[in-house]
Amino acid sequence: MASTYLTRTTGTPTDSKKYTFAAWIKRCDIGAGNSKIFSRTWGSGGEEKLEFNNDDLIWRNTSGGGGSTNWERVTNRKFRDCSAWYHIVVTFDSTQNTSDDGDRIKIWVNGVQETSFSSSSYPSLNADSAFMDTGVTQNYGRYASGGQETSSIWSHVHLTDGYAYAASDFGSFDNVTGEWKPITSPSVTYGNNGFFWFKDNADTTDNSPNSNTFTVAGGTLTKTEDNPSHNFTVLNVLQYWGVNGATMSNGNTTIATASAGHRYMTSTFGVSKGKYYAEFKCAVAAASGNSVVGVTDHECKDGTDELGQDNYSYAYLGGGNDYVRANGSNVLTGMPTWGVNDIICVALDADNNKLYFRVNSDSWINSADPTSGATGTGAVSITNAQGFYFFGVGDWHGSSSATWQCNFGNGFFGTTAISSEGTNASGIGKFEFDVPTGYTALSTKGLNE
After folding, report:
1. Are 140 and 21 in contact (CB under 8 A)?
2. Minimal CA–CA distance to 291: which of 311, 273, 306, 279?
3. DSSP state of 386
4. Are 370 and 439 in contact (CB under 8 A)?
5. CB atoms near residue 288 (< 10 Å)
């Protein structure tokens, strides 16, 4: 749902003094902008909204008119993990008449109620919610007056109208791992304006007993295999390059590199063992064959860092360069050329410290065999100092940029679905081409293979 927003106009509420919003959200950026979770259209009733503010705190407030005017709750805890899913539950219940008026607005994150706030004021007793007023436009993933479309991935989104629930009604802790996980069919009552979106896919079906559909008012709603029960790696926007010139989109699976400097970005997950496969489509090529893809054991350090140039860093260059570079030296030359719209397949064997490349569905370069294990037929031998390998993409050109669309198993290049799914014995992830036997997607389930 990154850079996409949805709208819906409310009907008569069951009870505008109570509601619960619950959603799983995977953030794709931090800091200013792209922070809104929901808001209502500004009007005489005011605006009521939930967002990650510029300091990455959860901010829940209303302002400007209506019975619930000028209250807010701002967490002390910051939420900056762009590799994980957050389960956020917010309950509005202005009927609570207790010594702690904070009971009127409750916030849970991953099953734990937030109790520490930098700012905390509350709606008055029996105040009506501006968000649940009749005939207002609710915005999901966007600021009410426009802009700041959210950069995040959403799943299992619930709204209950007239009912105040706790996080435990939508999720539970795993008895073995202690992990907070979704209840896929919660026993809740939705009320007139309630809904259950994104249960299994990215269509507009309301999975509650209602038929409260929504409008995709901006952007493109794209399905992904990435979900709270199966977390896939993406590109790590928190790295140096993520805050110094790169443009990220599509749930941090697409990157447009900066036109100045030589930089790269790596995956959020790193591995020390196992065998993993990923696909990288070159949507825009850097000049002079200087688009690069490969693996490394460390993140980009500055604007002159290049994938494949320093120790423990390995890259395949195409478009005329056509070589594999490792630790600052060309180790394979005269390799198949590639360019715009080609898909570079990368197989990482962390068990045997071997790396393999393929262009589209062609043979593995250097007559390689990713299933050859310790023998490493045709492989690039790799090593690391940090203990982990990460997939990486970038460019080597100081005045042009490249755009990479990464398929870590989510089944898309940008907003375009794979055209014909290849074979994949692991059954984990969806890829354009055949996955070598014994390899899998870099995801939570893949890590446990």
Report:
1. no
2. 306
3. S
4. yes
5. 13
Which of helix, strand or coil describes residue 108?
A: strand
Q: Are 114 and 75 in contact (CB under 8 A)?
A: yes
Please, are residues 439 and 426 in contact by the beta-carbon 8 Å criterion? yes
Contact 232, 155 (CB under 8 A): no
Sequential pLDDT tens for the chain (449 residues) = 456 788 889 999 999 999 999 999 999 888 765 567 888 766 556 778 888 888 888 888 877 554 445 788 999 999 999 999 999 999 999 999 876 777 899 999 999 999 999 988 888 899 888 889 899 888 888 776 666 666 789 999 999 999 999 999 999 999 988 999 999 999 999 999 999 999 888 777 899 999 998 888 877 788 889 999 999 999 998 886 655 678 888 889 999 988 777 788 999 999 999 999 999 999 998 887 788 999 999 988 776 778 998 899 999 998 888 999 999 899 999 999 999 999 999 999 999 999 999 999 999 999 999 999 999 999 999 999 999 999 999 988 767 788 999 999 999 999 999 998 999 999 999 999 999 999 999 999 999 87
Q: Which residue has the tokens 């870099």?
A: 442
Token pair, residue 148, equals 């700041």
Look at the block and give the residue holding tokens 């919660």: 186
End-to-end CA distance of the chain: 28
Long-range contacts of 71-74 (CB under 8 A, 24+ apart): 71/105, 71/121, 71/122, 71/123, 72/119, 72/120, 72/121, 73/102, 73/105, 73/107, 73/114, 73/117, 73/119, 73/120, 73/121, 73/122, 74/117, 74/118, 74/119, 74/120
The residues that bridge with 60 in the sheet, in sequence order, are 50, 73
For residues 83 and 236, the answer to whether their CB atoms sit within 8 Å is: yes
Task: Kindly report the pTM of this predicted structure.
Answer: 0.92
Angle at the Cα of 86 from the Cα atoms of 76 and 18, rounded to 5 degrees: 75
**Cβ 314 vs Cβ 326: under 8 Å:** yes
Whether the Cβ atoms of residue 405 and residue 254 lie closer than 8 Å to each other: yes
Q: Which residues contact 448 (CB under 8 A, 6 or more apart)?
A: none
Distance, CA of 440 to CA of 280 (rounded, Å): 15
Pairing state of beta strands 137-140 and 5-9? antiparallel
Residues 426 and 442 sit within 8 Å (Cβ to Cβ): no
